[in-house]
Automatic annotation (TrEMBL):
Catalysed reaction equations from the record: ADP-D-ribose + H2O = D-ribose 5-phosphate + AMP + 2 H(+)
InterPro entries: NDP_pyrophosphatase, NUDIX_hydrolase-like_dom_sf, NUDIX_hydrolase_CS, NUDIX_hydrolase_dom
Name of this protein: ADP-ribose pyrophosphatase
Membrane-crossing residue ranges in chain numbering: none
Keyword annotations from UniProtKB, A to Z: Hydrolase, Magnesium, Metal-binding
GO biological process terms, semicolon-separated: nucleoside phosphate metabolic process; ribose phosphate metabolic process
Length: 199
């Protein structure tokens, strides 16, 4: 099945700010082959995102950032999350350009080669966001400090961790956001190949 198997009956914009919320009434073809009944869904419309895990293959260290996240505020005892460097594609840029720009803005890091990990929908039941996930080669020896764009209210602390410690943080739940978990687990599976190519 594909987009030809969807019939949009109406689409209403309910909210427009930095993000957008649309209410869509539609029908779609069911697995029986028949068109299903009319259903209504709200869709959170947002820019696609780029996330990058800076990795130093010489030291076997990753660079993570820590910042306040409003989405975790009501469901976590600590809404300051350990995450990947990340940003939105909100102008005419390629995902790789966003990865490099955000690494400078959020962690004061210049990235070397980028290794595409995957692309995915983090929450397709209600959002059209699409994430481009990369590994970025870096020199972690001088990484640290607090960074971010003041005009965007960013207050971002940089952490350098041995890969083993970051994986332990995934295991014990200290790292609890999807992009970071996916990237770190991917690196755990592909570490020998990455180090062989980048060392």
């Amino acid at each position: 099945m594909g987009n030809d198997d969807i019939e949009i009956l109406s689409r209403e914009n309910c909210f427009r700010g930095f993000y957008r919320l649309d209410r869509i009434k539609l029908r779609h073809r069911q697995f029986s082959g028949d068109m299903g009944p009319s259903i209504t869904r709200e869709l959170f419309v947002r820019h696609d995102a780029v996330c990058v895990l800076p990795y130093d293959p010489q030291r076997d260290e990753v660079v993570l950032i820590e910042q306040f996240r409003v989405g975790a505020m009501d469901k976590s005892a600590n809404p300051w999350l350990l995450e990947l460097v990340a940003g939105l594609i909100d102008k005419d840029e390629e995902p790789e350009e966003v990865a490099r720009r955000e690494a400078v803005e959020e962690a004061d890091l210049i990235l070397g080669p980028l290794w595409p990990i995957t692309r995915y929908f983090p929450s397709p039941g209600g959002s059209d966001e699409f994430v481009h996930l990369f590994l970025g080669r870096c020199d972690s020896s001088a990484a640290g400090g607090v960074h971010g764009l003041a005009e965007e209210g960013e207050d971002i602390r940089v952490h350098v961790m041995p890969l083993a410690d970051a994986l332990a943080a995934v295991r014990d739940g200290r790292i609890d956001n999807a992009a970071s978990i996916i990237a770190l687990q991917w690196l755990a599976l592909n570490r020998d190949e990455v180090r062989g190519m980048w060392s």
